[in-house]
Amino acid sequence: CEEIKMTMQRHPQSLGYSKEELNRLNQAIQRLTVDVDRAESQDIESMEEGASGSAKGKLAWLEAALKQSRQDMARQLREYQELMVVKLGLDFEIATYRKLLEGEERRLGLRRGAESLRPGLARGPDRLLPSGAGAGSDALETSTPGCSGSLCGSPGRVKEFSCRDF
Questions:
Q1: How many CA atoms lie less than 13 Å away from 24 in the CB half-sphere?
Q2: Whose CA is closest to 95, among 64, 70, 117?
Q3: Has this prediction a pTM greater than 0.70?
Q4: Is the separation of the CB atoms in 135 and 126 below 8 Å?
C-alpha cells in the first residue's frame, strides 16, 4: 500500500512536471513558428530585392547599349555625309572633265566619242553643272565646295583648275 501511495505521490508530481514541460515545449514551438515565418518573409523580401536589382542591372545594361548604338549611328551618319560630299565633288569633277572632252572634240571636229563613255547618261551631265554651263556653252565656272577654277572661252584651253582633297 505504501508503494502505491508513493507512486501516486510521484505521479502527480510527475504529471505536474510533464504539464510544465508540455507548456514550455508548446511555447518554444510557437516562438520557432514565429521565427520561421519571419525568416520566410525576409527571404521573400530579399528575393524581391534581388530580382529588382537584377532587373535594374539589365535596364542599365540596355540603356548603355542603346546609348552606344546611338553614338555608332551618329558616327556612321557623319561618315555617310562626308562620303556624299566627296561623291558630289567627284561627280562634278567628272562632269567638268566630260565637258572639257566634248569641247576638245568639237574643236578638233571629232565625232562625239564621249557619248560612248557614258552610256545611260545621254541626257547629259548638264544636270550636274551650274546654270549657264549647258551643252552649248564654251565657258564653265565651277562652284563645288572645295573646288576652284575656270575654263576660258577658247575651247580646249584651260587657264586654271584645281580640286582639293575633301
A1: 6
A2: 117
A3: no
A4: yes
CA gap 95, 93 in Å, rounded: 5
The residue type of 93 is E
Please tell me the total number of residues recorded for the chain in this structure. Answer: 166
Alpha helices in the chain (DSSP H): 2-108, 114-117
SS3 146: coil
Q: On the CB side of 50, how many CA atoms lie within 13 Å of its CA? A: 6
In contact, 166 and 82? CB cutoff 8 Å? yes
- R_g of the chain, CA atoms, integer Å: 48
For residue 162, what are the contacts with CB-CB under 8 A and spacing of at least 6? 147, 148, 149
Per-residue pLDDT tens over the stretch 23-61: 888 899 999 998 888 888 887 777 777 777 788 888 899
Nearest partner of 96 among 84, 108, 88, judged by Cα: 88
Cell of 112: 562625239
φ/ψ (deg, to 5) at 143: -135, 20
Query: Can you tell me whether residue 153 is helix, strand or coil?
Result: coil
Which sequence spans correspond to the domains of the chain? 2-163
**Alpha-carbon gap, residue 121 to 94, rounded angstroms:** 12
